[in-house]
Known about the structure:
heterodimer; A: alpha/beta; Rossmann fold; Aminopeptidase; 3 domains; seven-stranded mixed sheet; five-stranded parallel sheet; 40% helix; 20% strand; globular; B: mainly alpha
Amino acid sequence: MLPPDVSPxxxxxxxxxxxxxxxxxxxLYADRPSRLELLKLKPSGAFAPVTIRVHRNHSxxxxxxxxxxxxxxxxxxxxxxxxxxxxxxxxxxxxAERADLELIWLDLQRYAGRFEAAELPEWLAGRFAALRARxxxxxxxxxxxxxxxxxxxxxxxxxxxxxxxxxxxxxxxxKLGARFFDERxxxxxxxxxxxxxxxxxxxxxxxxxxxxxxxxRIKAVAxxxxxxxxxxxxxxxxxAVRLTPGHEALQRHLAGLRERGFFLAxxxxxxxxxxxxxxxxxxxxxxxxxxxxxxxxxxxxxxDGLRAAAATLRIGTDAMLFVDDNPGxxxxxxxxxxxxxxxxxxxxxAATQRVLEFFPGLWSWDxxxxxxxxxxxxxxxxxxxxxxxxxxDPMDYLRRLEVRMRIEVTPRQHLARLHELSEKTNQFNLNxxxxxxxxxxxxxxxxxxxxxxxxxxxxxxxxxxxxxxVAQRSGDTLTVRExxxxxxxxxxxxxxxxxxxxxxxxxxxxPAERVVFLHRTAPRNGPAREWLSRLTGETLxxxxxxxxxxxxxxxxxxxxxxxxxxxxxxxx
Amino acid sequence: MTQRNDIExxxxxxxxxxxxxxxxxxxARANDAAWDSLRHMQIIFAVEEKYDIQFTEAEIFxxxxxxKFADYLExxxxx
Lengths: 572, 79
């Protein structure tokens, strides 16, 4: 472990940032972080500001003061705007002052006796709507004094307003027990939360709540093997490498990440047959060889291994987190691939696990059905490739796959997935609108707009909801403002049919003579632009629009051995 | 008994970190504008953590200088 008392230089580049995080890790990711040690960590460098407006009825300053080192880990400097202590949540703020996050910070004990049981969630639902009318930023309700029943009611009250999340304090309260509250400090600090609770709430805000709403999610965790997943070196210890309790828990945590939809990749300097043999022999390892959706086991540079794994997973390297016990490897990767996030695998594997638990981008507010489907769907890719090799032509391939496509127009119940598709899709994303949940909720209600979500399933796996079309009609023209297809769905050459059927489903509700696609160029959206260029026969400028109604008419479902189902306004 | 010099050294480190500027052992809430009520509580929490103690409400109000903290810590019975 790197000594925590060595002051690292201010981060000036990716390698320095990785080094700083490694130095700070023992403090930031301690089981019970120390305010005193946190105060010694002084983030320096140019960080992007993140503005959090706190609507509150008790003090938040003791939490805010502890947050900067954690925010610095994802390159942000927090700025807090405070309301007065206001039980009525009157939302007295200047509309001109934009916030990135609206935090409703309440001690619900202060409402005791003022509301009947069901009235408080109902009143809060009204406050969410009032705040949403004035701010498009994500809203987080963080309320203390909440039991199980009330937590469920609060979650229900949040569902009525787009982009509202409800934090859950119950795990922290259970962890701290009697130390969660400090009634002695309440009179002096303005909150009955103890200092320990304040510090750990600061970590929740900076490592979970805020990045869970403001930072693109990491898509893959790439791990080294020797002295990272176990204690020992395969080349020296053979299959007798040691699975310590900490490493066993770390492996279980990684397996859990996979179940939550993160890809796992194995990047190791070893001989692949040896590594396969290790996983076959060590049945006590919670992780299996099959759990890794991509493997790069060779004596080459690890940066090359990460690039290869990213290509296999069809993701950018900037969506990867790399875990290695060798700081030199971490620095080399940080230099070669500045976008890759890095975690130092410590000898104390429990400490490494805590870093992963709190690493920005590895935590999400919601678990969507797509999360569970992702890893299995990618595994099916290998079997699809075998089928493709056996098929006599592309249609024979699709026939063998038994593909079913499902289009839903105005899919209100899939708002979170719509947001994911707009926010996270990079390669097949034609216009990169990056629509928020609030944007999408408004467009779902707009009379001149329609949103279609596309689902894909075949006999090998259910890919889930993998495509999104957002279109607006004006006069006789339907303008496709946003078109995204998850990279997982691109291998089956069904893009033409998916888009044509989605547009047909939309024009059945909003008839239009002409269909125009908006497009713009981004570093990684070449596949979407190449598709549009091929479909229309047009050479695309950097940014603009292309008419495509004639090209789409030529795409007939009858020409594909694919079952297509279209559903309209599925919530009704 | 803990040596007063050691105590003062710890307290100077804590107060410098909380007040975000270097301080001397003579610093007090009355002579440092940065020592507001918010930072006072942070100093209290940090000293409690450092010495594994818990001040009473009255002590939280009363202990408003390094000198007073040092007197308190120097005179407290050792575990």
